[in-house]
Give the backbone structure.
Amino acid sequence: MTGRAVSAAVLLVIGAGLALLAVLVHYGFMAMYGGVTDTAFEGFTWGLTSGPSGLALGLVVVVALIGFMLSTRRWMRLTAVAIPVLMLIGMFAVTPAALGQKMEKQFVSAPQCVTEGTDEPMASADRESQQVFDSIEHIGHFKGGGGMSGVAGCTRWFVLPEDVDVLQHYRAALPAAGWEVVEDDGRHLRAQRDGRAFDVTPCPGGGVVWAGSDDDRSYGQGRPELAGTEICPHDL
């Protein structure tokens, strides 16, 4: 009985260590790949089903179950049951912090087109697009460096954690900044000012903005190299 109790205690210690490690792995996974628009529960559920967290949970449950079967005392059995439960609580508790860290590190509050070391003429086009973006009040969180840039304009995607009418925001923000809305069909909005153009299109969970010359088509549409390219990405 003494040997059995020792084996159970060792398994419980191992299970607790694995559970703590699993919580840390879940945090790192969510901070890298989690959806910043998800609620804590949505992110927690996605992490369990799509990442290593589910496999870790299964391993901890197996170790805790063996420890439970070998346990000779009530407190050991209660500990065996508590380990996976506390592990799940820990994962749920760290999910909002992990998503917040991703938001802080990978997203910015305004679209950024200008990057160091860009050759001409793209560098000049990026600066002109940046001037367009800087003249408008934006909403959402923009992926740092995420999007397409070129002489035909700059495209940047953004996410919205809350339910906001994207087009309605820009319907007010653009005229207030001196822009004239020239297209508004309920699916996208385009405005022009001083030879420059701005376009915004809502997407599930966010949207996409474009800035370029008023002679160019938004998002590079119509260019052969971009044929078939979707304006809204699958994973904002």
